[in-house]
Amino acid sequence: SSEEWKKVSSSECKSLGLTLENDGEFWMTFEDWCKNFTDVDICWIVNTSYFSIHKTWEKKMMQGTWTKNSEPLLNRSGGCFDNRDTFLQNPQWVKNHLLNHLPLLQVVFSAHGSLLALGALLTLCVDVVEDNRHYRLHKLTVQERVATSLYINTRTVFLKRILKQGRYILIPTTYHPGITTKFILRLFTDVPSKLRELKADKPKMTCWSLLCGYPRTVTQIKVHSAEGLQKQDRSGADPYVLIKCENQTVRSSVQHNTTSASFDAQAIFYRSSIDSPIIIQVWNSNILCDQFLGQAVLTALPSDPREQQTLQLRGRGSQEAAEVPGHITVRVFSSDDLVEL
């Protein structure tokens, strides 16, 4: 109804898709808008079609609940990171990240006015965890916080990050512990993320575990780096690490053209035998056949120190095998309590 629209030519109206009809669209001055509104949301429609020729995204949508329980292992309303004793009692989701891609993380909370009135500020935290973690995280030791949104009094929290190869835990939280409500977690990635909620705290006791042995010790290890490796060609080497325990193996990504590599590879093992060592091997990646560069063997007992340590690489065999060029920097945590780590 504004006289201003008469100044817009018919060709411009056509290019803008503008129709001057009583269809709910209206014009107002910026000053009037500021008097009547406080916020504006710009929505982005994410393309999830399997048949589109344009960029598409894989969508995962999960429903969750913050629930309150006096038993710490059953409580799912731990509050923000400042509540160190209860933060990891929040719901946890794990996602795989196999390739370099741009994930979009969006949390939509079904919060009503009564919840917002309590000051239930919301956020989403993203932590790197071990490549073979299948149970809930109980203690932050070697994990790295890679992303977090600001705590904000709103029904929707949006977070967008570029992530490296690895496995990540998503932890949606309220600011204060003890607040209960439902929420929805939407995750957009350009490859399948295999998003799932972590519900179990430790391995279940089964008939198979009675025959083969139930875990007695949990060990968490992080291989930070390797230095002084033997050159394999003029550019150095293409090293990667294998972390082995009992029948499990975790492999890091390959670092190219270097004899001093940063891996930051993590693994966690539930060991049925305390005598089972942790073996860390360094290999050189080749097209036809990879080359063994050295290894370190750890007892990883609960009584062993938990500080970062540097280990000399040795040949195949026991801890007393002959030394080979290079050393690795690691940090190891072991505990008889399967829900400590």
TrEMBL record:
Domain Calpain catalytic: 1-46
Coiled-coil segments on the chain, per record: none
One Pfam short name: Peptidase_C2
Organism: Atlantisia rogersi
Gene transcribed to yield this protein: Capn5_1
SMART domains with a match to the protein in the record: C2, calpain_III
Protein name: CAN5 protein
Highest taxon of source: Eukaryota
Matches recorded under CDD domains: C2_Calpain (cd04046)
Listed Gene3D superfamilies: 2.60.120.380, C2 domain (2.60.40.150), Cysteine proteinases (3.90.70.10)
Domain C2, first and last residues per copy: 199-314
GO cellular component: cytoplasm
InterPro entries reported for this sequence: C2_Calpain (IPR033884), C2_dom (IPR000008), C2_domain_sf (IPR035892), Calpain_cysteine_protease (IPR022684), Calpain_domain_III (IPR022682), Calpain_III (IPR022683), Calpain_III_sf (IPR036213), Papain-like_cys_pep_sf (IPR038765)
Molecular functions (GO terms): calcium-dependent cysteine-type endopeptidase activity
Family per similarity comment: Belongs to the peptidase C2 family.
